[in-house]
Amino acid sequence: MMLRATDLGWHTRGRAIVKGVTLQVARGEVLGLIGPNGSGKSTLLRLLSGLLKPSSGRVELAGHPLSRLSRRDIARILAFVAQQADTSDRITVRDAVELGRTPWLDALRPWSAEDDHHVATALATVEMQGFETRDWITLSGGERQRVHIARALAQCPQVLLLDEPTNHLDIHHQLAILRLIARLGLTTVVALHDLNQAMGCDRLAVMQGGRLIALGTPAAILTPDLLHRVFAVRATELTDPEDGSRVLRFHHVT
Ligand SMILES: Nc1ncnc2c1ncn2[C@@H]1O[C@H](COP(=O)(O)OP(=O)(O)OP(=O)(O)O)[C@@H](O)[C@H]1O
């Protein structure tokens, strides 16, 4: 297993935000994390990334207890694209993506052509080539999101954690990022709000009130009953005539 959480919990000011989450993500698997607002998805991702220290339970990354790995060791294996990762520093797009190479550099291994290659490839992958010299603060929300993803790709991780990576993107770039995630072959945990997009994941984990309440294939998870119980909507299923795939349509429940 590349990523394993066992009885993971986090509380603050006497309130439990994540409770008893146990899950495993296999090498190369894409696990979608879904759940209503405030259900604990971002907090769970921060726990899995090592940014947040668990109040209980543990995380293992590539067989190592996360608590025993240094930030640098973690960053050589895992990259995290947080939801709001703004910076007030005056940096260019290229500077932002170069940060992804930091875990691989030291006095004996200074910046080299290999690092230039990773930065250029990452920028091209998110269709942001040509933006290298632009100031970060001048970018649109969607452009910033794509640069964040490029920074994570430049890190050359084995595990990728993404918190709503499509929320600022236009439909072309939403589909491009989802296709990229599927093609990268990395062990991935991705929080998504669009349940039709979540259907493309290998498995889905459903959070509700800080607990993991369901884990399984999209077909097994996205049933009208679960969608009603967890998201308080009525869902009807349609079939896309182009490829026969299942499409969900949602109706408000009064
Ligand atoms: N540092 C904190 N202090 C107090 N409450 C917090 C803290 N971090 C998170 N919470 C609360 O924990 C709950 C879960 O938050 P989290 O951001 O993990 O949810 P989420 O499922 O990612 O939500 P969304 O879909 O709205 O992004 C929310 O009610 C939030 O207000």
Automatic annotation (TrEMBL):
Keyword annotations from UniProtKB, A to Z: ATP-binding, Nucleotide-binding, Translocase, Transport
GO molecular function, one term: ATP binding
CDD domains associated with the record: ABC_Iron-Siderophores_B12_Hemin (cd03214)
Family membership: Belongs to the ABC transporter superfamily.
UniProt-recorded name of the protein: ABC transporter ATP-binding protein
Gene source species: Paracoccus siganidrum
Span of domain ABC transporter: 3-234
Protein function: Part of the ABC transporter complex HmuTUV involved in hemin import. Responsible for energy coupling to the transport system.
InterPro entries documented for this protein: AAA+_ATPase, ABC_transporter-like_ATP-bd, P-loop_NTPase
